[in-house]
Amino acid sequence: MTTQPETTRLAVIDTDSGFVTVLSKRLESAGWQHRVLSTPVPPDELVAMKLNALVLDLSVLGSDGWDYLERICGMLPDLGVVVCTGKSSVAQRVRGLRLGADDWVSKPCHPEEVIARVEAVVRRRRRSRVQTDVGPMVVGELEIRADQFQAFVSGQSLDLTRREFELLQLLAEAKGNVLERESIYQRVWGYAMAHGDRSVDVFVRKLRQKLEKGSPGWRYIHTHFGIGYRFDPEPQAPEAQEAPLPPAPTDEAEPAAEQQDSEMSSAG
Amino acid sequence: MTTQPETTRLAVIDTDSGFVTVLSKRLESAGWQHRVLSTPVPPDELVAMKLNALVLDLSVLGSDGWDYLERICGMLPDLGVVVCTGKSSVAQRVRGLRLGADDWVSKPCHPEEVIARVEAVVRRRRRSRVQTDVGPMVVGELEIRADQFQAFVSGQSLDLTRREFELLQLLAEAKGNVLERESIYQRVWGYAMAHGDRSVDVFVRKLRQKLEKGSPGWRYIHTHFGIGYRFDPEPQAPEAQEAPLPPAPTDEAEPAAEQQDSEMSSAG
DNA sequence: TTCCGTGTGAACGACCTGTGAACGCAGGGC
DNA sequence: GCCCTGCGTTCACAGGTCGTTCACACGGAA
Questions:
Q1: How many CB atoms lie within 10 A of CB B56?
Q2: pLDDT tens, A57-66?
Q3: Is the distance from CB of B220 to CB of B167 less than 8 angstroms?
Q4: Euclidean distance between CA atoms B2 and A249, whole angstroms
C-alpha cells in the first residue's frame, strides 16, 4: 500500500538523435515524465526541474564533462545519475563513478537496459530515503495525509481505520473518475474480488458516515449505479453550512438531507 | 542511523579464483572487510554477516540464480548487490536489475571498476542515511544522545539497550510520522521482517516501560492499529507534575507541535 | 410491476496488540 | 572451565478492534 504514484522524472542530456528517439519512445510508453536536452544545462536549471534521475552522455560536454558531472552530483545528491556514453576506458568509468555517477553504460546499448539501470538507481535512492515528504492532499474540507494514514478536517482526525483510509486515498487519487468495484477491491485488498462480495459497499458506507460526521455539508463519494464509485467533493447546501462547528454531535437528525439516501430503516 | 560502520563489509560469491584473487588483493589494500564465498550461502547466513554489499556471480548458482537473487534482494533491501558474471544478454541484465540487483558487470572486467561500482552503490545507500547525526535531540522531557547511544531525562540515563535506543532514535527522527512495523524492522534490524515477528512490539513495550519510569506523565509512543507506531511526546496530565526541570530550550522541545490525531489508544 | 443492485444495521470471528515469561546465546568475572 | 548476568527472541494468553458476512429495506432499470 502507501502506493503514492511516484512517477519518475528523468532528463536525458544527449545529442545522439537515434538513441534519444528510441529511448524517448520507450519512456513514453512506460509513462515516465522525461525531457530531452541536447546541450548541457546549468546545474541550477537541473535543480529546478526536480528530477529523479539523469541520463548523461559525457561526450556532449567535451573536456568539461568531468567538472560538470562532479558539480551536478555535488549539488544534487539525491539525483540518480547514469552516464551513457561511447567507448570508454576502465579508468574513465572509475573516475566517473568516483565523481558521483551511479552507473555507467557504454554505447551502443539497449534502451531497455538503460531504463532498467535508471530504475535500479532510483529504486535504491527511494528505498533509503526517509519518507517524510509526502505532501498532504487537500480536497474539499479534507486533508488526506499519507504520512499519517489518516484524514483530517481542520486538524481533527476522522479516525479512519487502515482500510477506510486506503479506500479514501484510492478514490481521492482518482478524483473525478469512476472506479469499478472490482478495480477498487483489487487495488485496496490486493487480490481479486469474489463474486457477490459486498465489502467495498460496506466500506464506502463507513467512509461516508465518517466524512459526514467530520465534514457535514459536503458530499464526497458518489454512486454510479451498476458500475462503482466516484470521488468528487461537492458542497451540498451552499448556505448556512460552512460554520466550522460541530454543534450538537448527538444523533443525525439532519434536516436538510434532501433527495435520496437519508435513513430509511425504521426497523433498524 | 544505525551508526558506525565506516568501513564497508562486502562478500563475494564467485568461484573464479583468478578474478577473486585479484579482487581480494585490491580490497585488502583498500581496507574493506570482505569475505569470499565459493558456494551460495543461505540468505539467513548472509543476514548474519551484516553486509553492506555483495558481489555475486550468478553462474555459481546455475538455474537457481534468479530465485536466489530475488530472495536476497527481497530479504535485504539495504544490501547493495552487484552481479558480476560472464557473458549475458540484455534481457538477462534487465531481468537481474528488475529483480533487485543494483548493478551488473560483465566479465572480463577490471577489479577497480567492480570496486568503483560497489562504492557507487553503497554511497547511494549511505548518502541519504546520515544527515541528522550529531546534535543531541530534545523531545518532551527526553534528551536523545546519539553519541552515547542513550537517552536521558534530566541527566539521568534511561538505561536503554542498544536495540531499544536504535528503535527510539528511529521513531524520534520520524517525529509525527507513522512508521509501519515492516519499515521499523527493516531499518533497525537491517533486513526484512518475517511474517508474524513480534519483536517490534516487544521492544516498543520495553521502551514504553523505561520511558514511563523515567518520564512519567508523558506519552511518547502511540499505536496505530494495523499500521505501526508514531512518536510524539504528549504531556499526559498537565497538573500533578512535579515540573522539575527546565528542559533545554533548544529547537525541538515542542510538545504539542502537530495537531494531535486520534490514534486508537491501546489500553485505554 | 419485477428484478437486481445498493444502503444499512448488526453480529460473528479473525486478526492485531499488550503483556508476562521462558528460552538461548554471548560476554565477563571467578 | 563454570556460573552469572544482560540481552534479544519466541511463545502463550488476554482483551480489544476491525473486517466480513448476513438479512433486510430501498431504489433504479427493464
A1: 26
A2: 999 888 889 9
A3: no
A4: 47
Are B259 and A120 inside 8 Å of each other by CB? no
CA B94 to chain centre: 27
- Spacing of B198 CA from D9 C1' in Å: 9
Q: Convert the pLDDT of each residue in A2-36 to its tens digit.
A: 344 467 899 999 999 999 999 999 998 888 999 99
Residues with CB under 7 A from strand D: A 161-164, 189, 194, 197-199, 202-203, 225-226, 260-261, 264-267; B 159, 161-164, 189, 197-199, 202-203, 225-226, 264-265
Give residue A237's pLDDT.
64
Low-confidence ranges of chain B (pLDDT < 70): 1-6, 125-134, 237-268
**A265 min Cα distance to partner chain B (Å):** 30
Give the separation between CA A148 and CA B262, rounded to whole angstroms: 10
A233-242 residue pLDDT tens: 999 765 444 4
pLDDT of residue B50: 83
User: What are the C-alpha distances in Å from B213 to residues A169, B210, B219?
Assistant: 39, 5, 11
Chain B residue with the nearest C-alpha to that of A79: B124
CB-neighbour burial class of residue B212 (10 A; exposed 0-12, middle 13-18, buried 19+): middle
Q: Measured in angstroms, what separates residue A259's CA from nucleotide D29's C1'?
A: 19
Nucleotides, chain C, CB distance < 7 Å: 5-10, 16-21
Mean pLDDT of chain A: 85
> How far, in Å, CA of B109 to CA of B122, rounded?
19
3-state secondary structure (DSSP) of residue A77: coil
CA distance A210 to A202: 13
Report residue B197 as a C-alpha cell: 515477528
- The pLDDT-based confidence of A131 (bands split at 50, 70, 90) is low
Rounded Cα–Cα distance for residues A108 and A18 (Å)? 11
How confident is the model over A186-195, as a mean pLDDT? 94
**Quick check: B94 and A112 CB within 8 A?**
yes
Question: Using a CB-CB distance cutoff of 8 angstroms, which residues of chain A are in contact with residue B224?
Answer: 149
pLDDT band per the 50, 70, 90 thresholds, residue A243:
very low
List all nucleotides in chain D with at least one atom under 7 A from a protein Cβ. 6-12, 17-29
Residues from B in contact with A at Cβ < 8 Å: 77-78, 80, 90, 93-94, 97-98, 100-103, 110, 112-113, 116-117, 119-121, 123-125, 127-129, 173-174, 176-178, 180, 224-227, 230, 259-262, 264
Q: What percent of chain A has pLDDT over 90?
A: 67
Quote the CA–CA distance of A262 and B257 in Å, as a whole number. 39
